[in-house]
Amino acid sequence: MEIQNKATRINLFNFSTPQMRAFHMSWFAFFLCFFAWFGIAPLMKVVREEMLLTKEQVGWCIIGSVAITVIARLFIGWLCDQIGPRLSYTWLLILGSLPVMGIGFAHDYTTFLMFRIAIGAIGASFVITQYHTSIMFAPNCVGTANATSAGWGNLGGGVTQLVMPLIFTLFIGVLGFSDSLGWRASMFVAGLICALTGIAYYFLTQDAPDGNFKELRAAGKLPQKANNKGKFWTACKDHRVWALFVIYGACFGIELTINNIAALYFLDHFDYFQDMETAHAIKMAGLFAGMFGLMNIFARTLGGLFGDRFGEKWGLSGRVKWLFVVIFCEGIALMLFSQMSILVMALPALIIFSLFVQMSEGATYSVVPFINPKALGAVSGIVGAGGNAGAVAAGFLFKTHAITWPTALFIIGAIVTCCSFLTFIVRFSEETEEEVRLAHELAVTARSGEKELATVIGN
Question: Which residue windows are transmembrane per the record (predicted)?
Fold first, then answer.
């Protein structure tokens, strides 16, 4: 049994249909999760000075922030298949907000690291966002829907680099808080908004176009929970899933890494910031670091959009070829950025790299929905976990004293370039290609019929 009545178009200004409500709520929820997840990153200079953190301890904080997300994403994919994306997102947002607010109680390296690790669970929100849009949109536009919802969600990683320093400045400059109390109050605000969004998600969305999973199962329109057994292991046995696991680690994992280190990287490696007062330096570094994340406004969407276009012309193999191109270019661009020692040259290199890393993410999830539609949650969860596994692996390069951060970025860029060749083992059978082609044609026909009906009604 397949999900019926998927949307064949993305009408951004339509909030009346369940498909578009799910689209808007899922990207907004992911945006806030990303904002809270990396809210502390642009304030790490203050935390580092207050708690006297060493380079190694900062490195462990970077690793900790993404480590638990690997497990959380594997679990949340299974949970979506069981109870649906609506309840999954509601509980994740509410429970995930607790450590975001609670990090304000950290008083030393150990307690700070524990809260940083716990906050990472909220990163599992990505899997729910991709799951929800995948079951709401038809094959002709699912790549664009997935890429746009995830891209606008990832935008939170850029916005937090800009906004959290401003909130911090508000607390210490206007309300008279100390630096120590200022960063804690800033994180409390981020967590509170996440909790409120979780409540809104419950009331404003539904699991599928025709209703919630519980009602659909009762009506016989969706397999019972018992029938979901074995889907996770089926996904685990598919070598294509693990190829995409590594590939996603080479794009999204690197984005997570950059979100964690960007502000400190600018502060520590460019002379421009050396003579600035601390609060001003943090704001400027956050502004430049935010440029990386702000590319998500359109870059990830482009990855999914071109994935759909390549798929329309060359089938599923076309989607994979597009993925190879962007992930290969991402690796080259990162190596280029790592060699920039002058700020005016580093910023354009960062933007070019950002364009390709985010297009790679969109391209990856223009392929994921077609790997195994019957185990969508499992596949999405495993591939999504790959992103965080990549971030964990990359994080170890930033905690050692043996190599500098620019050298670490160059090494990562070389690894990403090599990983692009894994796309060659992501292949589809002729039967699958034909099934997707027919589904695409049906979606296009349905969309044309909607246009004709709208024209008749308008006349």
Answer: 25-46, 58-76, 88-106, 113-132, 152-175, 187-204, 241-267, 279-299, 319-337, 342-359, 379-398, 405-426
In a domain, 35, yes or no: yes
> 19: which 2 tokens?
């498909």
At residue 239 the predicted structure's pLDDT band, cuts being 50, 70 and 90, is: very high
CA 252 to CA 154: how far, in whole Å? Answer: 10
12 part of a folded domain = no
Query: 144: which 2 tokens?
Result: 């664009």
Take residue 273 and report the two structure tokens written for it: 């910031």
CB distance 10 to 145 below 8 Å = yes
Residue 261: Cβ-neighbour burial (10 angstroms; 0-12, 13-18, 19+): buried
- State pLDDT tens for residues 248-306: 999 999 998 998 888 888 888 888 877 777 778 888 888 888 888 888 889 989 998 99
> What does the alpha-carbon distance between residue 46 and residue 44 come to, in Å, rounded to a whole number?
5
* Number of domains the chain contains: 1
Alpha carbon distances (Å) from 311 to 176, 208, 377: 56, 24, 22
Beta bridge partners of 208: 211
We report the CATH number of the domain holding residue 396 as: 1.20.1250.20
Spatial CB neighbours of 68, under 8 Å, sequence gap ≥ 6: 117, 118, 120, 121
| In a domain? residue 113 | yes
Question: pTM for the full model?
Answer: 0.78
| Domain boundaries, position 392 | 18-209+232-447
Instruction: Answer yes or no: are the C-beta atoms of 223 and 3 closer than 8 Å.
Output: no
Q: Which of 158, 162, 160, 159 is nearest to 355 (CA)?
A: 158
In a domain, 205, yes or no: yes
- Report the candidate in 34, 44, 260 with the shortest Cα–Cα distance to residue 168: 44
Residue length of the chain:
459
Q: Is 11 helix (H, G, I), strand (E, B) or coil?
A: coil
* Amino acid sitting at position 353: F
**CA distances to 60, 232, 260, 413, 418 from 394, in Å:** 11, 27, 11, 11, 15
